[in-house]
Write a structure and sequence with these properties.
Blueprint: H1 13-18, E1 22-37, E2 42-51, E3 56-57, H2 61-71, E4 82-91, E5 98-104
Antiparallel strand pairs: 1-2, 1-4, 2-3, 4-5
Length: 119
């Protein structure tokens, strides 16, 4: 059996780094799933985007705002839309910690130029 089939196909920061910093896919489904939230340290219902190639993405707030701005608030209308997710390096203003954050290519929204600021 090919064990690669058992690996999760998720668009994580590590996956984006392996892909050179970006991923482009076509949305085929958006649903809600209970996922571990590392910031809240508990499981919470989160939107999960599934792409036609089988990869999934749990969009952060910035990506959610971008998808709503580009395609509307009804996620059923996102199916068939192509999106590109990119990885951006930033420093937290409060701690100075250098981290990476996913964002929707072509949309930075009202926070333009302030990626990664602590909310």
């Amino acid at each position: 059996m090919d064990m690669r089939k058992t690996l999760p196909r998720q668009i994580t920061n590590d996956e984006l780094k392996q892909r050179g910093g970006s991923y482009t896919g076509v949305v085929c489904d958006v649903g809600m799933e209970e996922k571990w939230n590392k910031f809240a340290r508990e499981k919470r219902e989160q939107p999960v985007i599934t792409f036609t190639d089988g990869y999934t993405l749990v969009p952060n707030m910035r990506i959610r705002r971008g998808l709503i701005a580009k395609f509307g608030s009804e996620s059923d209308r996102w199916c068939g839309k192509q999106v590109t997710v990119r990885l951006q390096k930033f420093s937290s203003k409060s701690s100075g910690e250098v981290r990476f954050e996913k964002f929707l290519d072509g949309w930075h929204g009202p926070e333009e130029g302030h990626a990664g600021e602590d909310a």
